[in-house]
Design brief:
This protein is mainly α and 194 residues long. The chain has one domain. 74% of the residues lie in helices and 0% in strands. The protein is globular and about 45 Å long.
């Protein structure tokens, strides 16, 4: 019963949109109606500024991290930790509170993987930062990090369950960024505002 409760809690926490709440509290337009219309930190950055984007990023990361830490504190085994992590991630992608239309999941994926293995998360963060510095494109940086996530998991958290989790998250991240792929190929993807 505890295992099911952890997974359900993770999905519900994941369903809370940091972008929508932050924009509402800061008097900004709904991110689903501005810019790329994606309720995520990158879109909020484009029209709401760095402060709103930072709060959104932290909120999305925290809602991925917190359920995994709670499950770990409760003594959950690897399979339950992985299920909890995936539930939080899916909550962000398909939130029950917002008609199952959520963000693309980069920050929440980082949060859940931070809860699973901090070295994996550090490797992903460094990859994103390096790629963002080189290419100045958030989505490309995220896609490269997503492709490398299973490798980093294999190196730093060599568990079949965690590697499978990482592969599943990476596939979903790539799927959610399919429109970005098209813009990248067309050379029309927006660059990061600095």
């Amino acid at each position: 019963m505890l295992d099911i409760s952890l997974v359900v809690f993770a999905y519900l926490i994941g369903s809370v949109s940091a972008a929508i709440i932050t924009c509402k509290l800061m008097g900004l337009p709904d991110p689903r109606s501005e810019g790329s219309r994606n309720p995520g930190a990158t879109n909020v950055l484009r029209y709401g500024g760095k402060k709103a984007a930072a709060i959104t990023l932290f909120g999305d990361m925290l809602k991925g991290l917190l359920p995994v830490l709670i499950a770990r504190f409760a003594g959950a085994e690897e399979s339950v930790l992985a299920a909890t992590a995936m539930a939080a991630f899916l909550g962000h992608l398909y939130p029950i509170f917002f008609g199952f239309h959520g963000g693309k999941g980069v920050a929440t994926a980082f949060g859940v993987l931070l809860g699973i293995s901090w070295p994996v998360a550090v490797a992903l963060a460094l990859t994103w930062l390096l790629m963002a510095k080189v290419f100045k494109i958030s989505s490309l940086s995220a896609l490269i990090a997503a492709v490398l996530a299973p490798f980093y998991t294999w190196v730093f958290a060599p568990s079949n369950i965690y590697i499978s989790l990482s592969i599943a998250i990476s596939i979903l991240l790539l799927w959610r960024h399919r429109s970005n792929f098209q813009r990248l190929l067309a050379g029309s993807e927006e660059k990061i505002n600095t």
